[in-house]
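Q: Given only this backbone (174 positions), what sequence would you predict?
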């Protein structure tokens, strides 16, 4: 799978904690290798690392990054998710043509600065209606990786065994 990272812009720790946590966990579950968050938030880092410790994988979280130079100088393909962008079905073949090294997916919280639209390699819409960064990220990753992200074994201490009813969990820490 292509090495893929998420850049979360505009995170406000007091307002967005839950949504940004969901952005991070969605990134991890659907196949990304890490998330960069523009605002420093140690509690967010601890929450995400606690999931990684229990459920496995090597997903990384870094908060408090200077997003402007980070995005502008990213040495791969950047994909800004926005309802104003090219429809995902039209964009994915174009992205696959050029994304050979690594990919950075950018999602906002509140209004995204105009520079992002200029610096991103692609501006991509999961449809052209307003909805959510969590939904947009999940749809994009699932379509891009054609479901492969959801099939990975993350080799965690806690492993969920799919079942029709109830909960089956193997816990190697006990
Ligand atoms: N009103 C803000 C603006 O105009 O930039 C966007 C707020 S929206 C709740 C937060 C983020 O969700 C956006 O920055 C974008 O990344 C994502 N998003 C929402 N709807 C989307 C769509 N239809 N396609 C792609 N991304 C979307």
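A: Predicted residues:
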């Amino acid at each position: 799978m292509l090495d893929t990272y998420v850049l979360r812009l505009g995170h406000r720790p007091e307002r967005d904690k839950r949504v940004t946590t969901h952005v991070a966990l969605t990134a991890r579950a659907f196949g990304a290798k890490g998330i960069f968050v523009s605002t420093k938030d140690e509690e967010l880092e601890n929450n995400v690392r606690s999931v990684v410790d229990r459920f496995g994988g090597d997903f990384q979280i870094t908060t408090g990054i200077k997003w402007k130079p980070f995005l502008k100088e990213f040495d791969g393909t950047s994909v800004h998710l926005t309802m104003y962008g090219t429809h995902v079905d039209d964009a994915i073949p174009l992205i696959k043509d050029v994304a050979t090294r690594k990919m950075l997916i950018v999602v906002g919280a509140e209004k995204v600065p105009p520079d992002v639209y200029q610096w991103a390699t692609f501006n991509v819409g999961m449809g052209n209606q307003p909805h959510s960064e969590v939904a947009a990220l999940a749809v994009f990753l699932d379509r891009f990786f054609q479901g492969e992200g959801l099939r990975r074994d993350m080799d965690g201490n806690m492993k969920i065994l799919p079942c029709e009813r109830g909960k089956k969990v193997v816990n190697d820490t006990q």
